[in-house]
Design brief:
Layout: H1 24-33, H2 42-62, H3 67-85
Helix pairs in contact: 2-3
Length: about 90
């Protein structure tokens, strides 16, 4: 039995910094690997949260089974970036 070359396994889909992960799980994995150090400057954290929001919003468009959850994560990341910009920290 031959595999259809157009069918991709989302777990083996290579994800680069400029590409959009195909699944919510891949998005979590990619963003976890790019997470700044705990003691990074606040502008680094704001950039990370904004980039994360972009990734989750894009995933919501392609991973239809997780679109609501990905949308939640996008909104959460935007909220966190704004909290940092406003000097609010949550511990």
């Amino acid at each position: 039995m031959t595999k259809n070359p157009r069918t991709k396994n989302p777990m083996t889909n290579p994800v680069t910094r400029d590409s959009v992960p195909a699944t919510l799980a891949q998005a979590h994995e990619v963003l976890l690997r790019s997470r700044p150090r705990h003691d990074a400057e606040s502008d680094v954290w704001v950039a990370f949260h904004r980039r994360s929001a972009e990734v989750y919003a894009a995933v919501a468009k392609v991973d239809r089974g997780h679109r609501h959850e990905a949308g939640y994560w996008a909104a959460s990341e935007i909220r966190r970036a704004r909290e940092i910009e406003d000097g609010v920290t949550r511990r």
